[in-house]
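Regression test case RT-17, inverse folding.

Input:
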């Protein structure tokens, strides 16, 4: 065993004893970012052992070698562990632990789907990590599984048998960008059930048939599962970035940045062809144009003036403008639009209690929360209307 092989995560209340990890949750990572000379050179292979997935807010770390027992201060090994380094290790350990647990949940749910004869594709998370984050831990907060639209009801039944429940089923129905999935949760683990990719307007059944026919396979959580092929993953990276256009930091923008640096031009042409076939060209163009490098790719693909106003409003990060545009553009009569607006202004009490502490204080608190929500929406309206007018004027001039 060479220098610095093992990073052991331990609770602060249990410093004297290294926590044993479950074998299925122990991985070997390449960690070039741990190249600090204070740690005697680069640690090429870092094995992280994490257990329990219940973390104390004050984690402690130690490097363990056969030559000496664990020493939290690190003095026996000739270096001191700074607070900044511990925080960096803490983030890495937390990301790894959550990702490992989500991978196990993905394997569990996908296997249960398979027993019921439900075909499944694993989206994002481990698929993107294997391609764009080799030797790194890509932070992941949920599992994304795609099934055929005809299998959705059966898939929901399987999730409920496994202990998952729909997350916030009482949320107001919005007309803006559809995420393409429904979140389910169990003990803090989230599974998004998809029947469509965000930004695609094509027939979901036809899209599913094409995606399933070209699927690859990848081992996730110890189980070989079906995943989209590389061209579809590239398309999804761009669509995911477009859907989260309002997020400057985070996985969607970082995924897109890495894809733009890695993928050759011919692959972008394949992704463009898929976007056209699935009726997702506007979203694809909007996603590419989020970064300067993407603008260059868009020019090479000759996307011209292809635009998506919905994604431009999302990029402005103005919920009011986005909802106003979606409502004005919706294929619905005035009565239906007014009903949707009323549900958005006055959502169900369950949602109000979830989103507002004031609403949790009895009937009077709930009534005050509704009044506050109306006042907040009135206050947001001028900025939303101005953003809506400005973007539409810019589009007309273009």
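Golden output:
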């Amino acid at each position: 065993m060479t220098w610095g092989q093992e990073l052991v995560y331990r609770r602060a209340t249990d410093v004297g004893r290294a926590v044993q990890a479950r074998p299925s949750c122990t991985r070997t990572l390449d960690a070039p970012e741990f190249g600090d000379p204070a740690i005697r050179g680069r640690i090429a292979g870092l094995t992280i052992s994490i257990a329990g997935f219940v973390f104390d807010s004050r984690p402690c770390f130690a490097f363990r070698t056969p030559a000496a027992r664990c020493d939290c201060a690190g003095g026996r090994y000739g270096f001191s562990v700074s607070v900044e380094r511990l925080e960096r290790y803490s983030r890495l350990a937390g990301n790894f632990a959550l990702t490992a647990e989500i991978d196990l949940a993905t394997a569990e749910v996908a296997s249960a789907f398979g027993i019921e004869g439900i075909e499944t594709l694993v989206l994002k998370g481990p698929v993107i990590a294997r391609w764009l984050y080799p030797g790194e831990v890509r932070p992941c907060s949920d599992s994304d599984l795609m099934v055929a639209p005809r299998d959705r009801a059966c898939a929901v039944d399987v999730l409920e048998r496994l202990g998952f429940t729909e997350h916030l089923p009482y949320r107001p129905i919005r007309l803006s960008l559809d995420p393409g999935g429904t979140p389910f949760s169990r003990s803090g683990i989230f599974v998004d059930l998809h029947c469509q990719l965000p930004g695609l307007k094509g027939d979901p059944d036809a899209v599913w048939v094409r995606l399933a026919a070209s699927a690859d396979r990848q081992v996730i959580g110890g189980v070989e599962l079906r995943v989209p092929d590389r061209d579809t993953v590239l398309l999804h990276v761009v669509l995911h970035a477009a859907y989260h256009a309002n997020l400057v930091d985070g996985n969607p923008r970082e995924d897109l940045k890495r894809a733009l640096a890695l993928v050759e031009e011919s692959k972008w042409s394949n992704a463009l062809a898929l976007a056209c076939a699935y009726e997702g060209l506007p979203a694809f163009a909007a996603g590419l144009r989020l970064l300067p490098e993407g603008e260059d790719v868009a020019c090479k693909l000759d996307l011209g003036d292809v635009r998506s106003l919905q994604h431009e409003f999302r990029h402005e990060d103005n919920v009011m403008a986005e909802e106003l545009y979606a409502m004005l553009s919706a294929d619905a009569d005035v009565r239906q639009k007014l009903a949707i607006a009323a549900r958005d202004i006055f959502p169900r009490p369950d949602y109000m209690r979830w989103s507002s502490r004031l609403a949790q204080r009895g009937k009077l608190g709930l009534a005050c929360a509704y009044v506050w929500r109306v006042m907040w929406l009135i206050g947001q309206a001028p900025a939303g209307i101005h953003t809506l007018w400005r973007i539409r004027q810019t589009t007309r001039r273009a």
